[in-house]
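Hello forum,

I keep getting stuck at the same step: I have a sequence, I want structure tokens, and every attempt I make locally crashes halfway through. Rather than fight my setup again tonight, could one of you with a working pipeline run this one for me? It's a single chain of 274 residues.
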Amino acid sequence: MINTQTSNQSSLEVDYCPECGEKTSTIVEFMGAKKKVPCMCKCKREEYEKQRELDMKVEQQRKLDRLKEYSLMDKSFMQYTFGNFKTDKYNKDLYKLAVEYCNEWTRMKKENTGMILMGPPGAGKSYLSFCIANELLNKFVPVIAISTIGIINKIYSSYNSYGEEGEAHIINSLKNADLLVLDDLGAEHTSARGKEKQIIYSIIDSRVRQGKPIIITTNLNKQQLREKLISEDRIDRSFDRLTAVAPILEIEGPSRRKEEGNRRFDSLMGLLKK
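Reply #2:
Ran it on my machine without issues. Output:
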């Protein structure tokens, strides 16, 4: 009688890939019996790695899309990047500082270091702050970047749809993001009850107390900002606490909005010469 098990084991042969020549199967021994099991050749390993990289890129893009949605950033500001930033003698040092801030983000976050970009309208404060936001978002850092007017509109809209829970959700998101970029502080409308001011400055105060970095842009000067941050008891402790973790950086130079407006005006007038 022929021992079929022995016969089958003796006939086991390793398979090879016709493309790369590496093994596509191997012989293993388990509990006294030899078996042929598949294995990956070079072709299959490369195919697997390509698929794994593709899956990772897809997942990273999904994560980035979620972060951008969570950021509350207006779509127009998503085009503000360091690659599109135009440097000149007025802003080149601030540009370098902003780039290095992103490069050193882990340390900046740990040390709770933010900044206040202060200067006249059109000086490039918002552009620079949203460049920082977009750079960090692309590094998968949870950032919220929104104007103070946008915050109030979001909160009121959420309140109208979901009541106090909707309002609380927006405020908690602003308080807990890794970085909050708060654009155009001081431009928000304040009602007779002053609720808008209370909301904005409770968010700022909460982040300062929690040790979470904040970047603020404002057209206000130092004294006006100090007045804005004075509490009901007329003590300006909030200003001192904020500037201790977010130093004031003053931006100078001509209004880039006016320069762009003049350029477009000249372009239109040029049509008359044709």
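The chain is about 50% helix and 15% strand. If your local run keeps crashing, start a new thread with the error log.
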